[in-house]
Amino acid sequence: MNIRTRNLYACIFLIIISLIGFASNVIALNYAFSFRTNEELVWKCNVCDNNKMNNIFGENWSSTGLFEDLSQGKKMKWQVNTTNVNSTSLSATFNIWVWKNEDNWGSYDYITEFSHLKDPSQYASNYNLSIAFPFVPFWLPIPVSIYIGELKLNSIYDVDNRVLPTINVQISKGFLEPSYPSEKVFIIAIYNYDGILSSFKLYTSGNVVVIDISFESIPIYVLPATLGLIGAFFIAIIIYVRKQTKK
Amino acid sequence: MTFLSLFSRIFGKLKEFWKVKMFRFAILTQMIYLTLSTILFFLFFYQFNDFAIFYESGRIFVTDIENLYNQTNYIWDFRYFPLSALFFIPFSFLNFGLAFILFNGLNFILNILICLIMYKIIKIVRGPDHERDDNRIIMYLSFYLMGVPHILNYVYGQINLFVTFFILTSLFIFLFYKKNSWQFVGSVILGISIIIKPTSLLLIPFLLILHFDLEKRKLKIDFLKSIIRLVGVFLPVLSNFVLFLAFPKLWGDFLSTNFTGSNPVALNYSFSLTKLITNFCFLFNIPFNQLTILVASVGIIGGIGFFIFVLRRRAQSSILYGYSIGILIMLLTYYDSWNHHLLNLTPLMIIIIFTLPRHSKLLNYIKPSLFFFNFFDLIFVGIWFFTYPLFPFNFVGTFFLFLTFYGISKYLIVKKMGSVKGGD
């Protein structure tokens, strides 16, 4: 056996050994927070058709909870107060400024604690994330794709975690009260990889958007990456066409 | 021909290929992809890949077929025809990790077989002005094997190579065997590819032997062969209905999963035109109906593609161009067209390169597209994650799909191309 052949067999042997090693060592997941104490999270309401919401959910839909005083152009701010991890759950308290028009936030409106089980498989089957607005959480533990994939949710939810961590919700007519909602509504909640709700859209049949909320801070690289992509594409086309016409 | 002699011929041909340095490099690349995907699978994607769905479908088919479309059994929806689960029964008897490794081993063998079929087809359809030795063919086969879409195909444990294998086998039969019995066999094989994954569904119209002669203004149709082909392709597809009849719940679940289940509205990096449109509507809150967009896209692009096919001025290897147009229409119009689906298209593009005149200017459309799909498309999937909050459009792949569509259409319908050295 020459040296090259021996090396080849050695490589194959190492690959097989490492594969066997991996096969018996699937990594256990530790879910965690992505945010730190005092970090601020701001969401902006891009669309809010109040009349339509009143028709669908009644006049009181914006009187309490996380949609209190929601209307187009307003912002909501959360400041991380404390975070706590114990053997079974991850919890965080937030100072919450509900939907306001101005950037001068003043003092917060509520202190609220939100928690999630550390092991999502421990939630009961047919679990409801929330049966009140906004029906989906504003934050989830990370890695969020795997976390939502492990939840055994009620049939109104449909998790799509193949590309972006997304929770689709389909709320049938009369799901909340006999007369509300007055028609079937849909929600698409997209989370960023930090587990923060980055886009929330509530819409009716025909994809007519009634509420559109988005996380305000877009990562710094998004704008240069977008401009770079479009610019590079057109420059490449121009160079290619010029080269071809010269031939 | 016995299996033994077939095997020895295959082995002999591979030994010939092996003498070419680039092919050895391509095999090494495949080995790296295979190893990398196995490591990634055990580190990150264990249970979070498409193979987990196929594996589970094989198990449920045997144990509890009525719940084949009960989506609580799967991490992501199982949407394919029920008979597709048959392919995965043997794997479902094995340990999941071992099944994944064996499945990808089979994918690797399929890649080699795909190369051999491509080689056989190219050898015969190759234009007269192409080099007579095999070096250039082996170079392109090596490009195919080195293709980056193989990475995700291996990582996800996807089934695209089965589809490609059956498409190319049926293409091979249609190109070289003219008897009606072979037409039937070729179309049955295409039908099997549709059972595995409906990617090749839109190839069916191109099985029709239909041609409008623009010079004589006369429509020619070979009814008998067209009917034989249609019967052949629909036979495997319709055999699913035996199961639907036997288990009515299966039919209801199949319909609800495919037509009323989770909606295809959410953002993703699919490069299909339909997804670019729905992403645009999603971003700007424009009301839309995704089914209408799908039907309109298929109607417009599919209609143009089919008319070009019927009006073609070049009769040679028309089924090859029909298949290519069919796959292009599918990739352009179905909601989710991912990087690994390109493995259905690139072998056809490589064959087309050898049927076009050696120095044809049409290669300026096909070749850049092939190299983009084969080596660069995945980069733009990565870029999409950096731009999606502002610009959720993976449009570069769409551009090259249209470029290929344009190049093929031009070849088929332009009367005499002054731009093509050496005529058409």
Overall mean pLDDT of chain A: 85
- Topology, number of strands of chain A: 9
Give the end-to-end Cα distance of chain B, rounded to a whole number of Å.
38 Å
CATH topology of chain A: YmcC-like fold
Q: Taking Cα atoms only, what radius of gyration of chain B do you get, to the nearest Å?
A: 21 Å
Query: Kindly, what is the distance between the CA atoms of the first and last residues of chain A, rounded to a whole number of angstroms?
Result: 54 Å
Summarize the model shown.
With 247 residues, chain A is of the alpha+beta class. In chain A, 25% of the residues lie in helices and 30% in strands. Chain A is globular and about 70 Å long.
Would you kindly provide a written description of the structure presented here, covering whatever features stand out?
The complex is a heterodimer of chains A (247) and B (424). With 247 residues, chain A is of the alpha+beta class. Chain A has a nine-stranded antiparallel beta sheet with strand order 4-3-2-1-9-8-7-6-5, with helices on one face. The longest helix of chain A has 25 residues. By secondary structure, chain B is an all-alpha fold. Chain B has a domain of 163 residues. Chain B is 66% helix and 2% strand. Chain B is built from 18 helices and two strands. Chain B has a two-stranded antiparallel sheet with strand order 1-2. Chain B is globular and about 55 Å long. The chains are: A alpha+beta (247), B mainly alpha (424). The interface between A and B is large, with 42 and 43 residues.
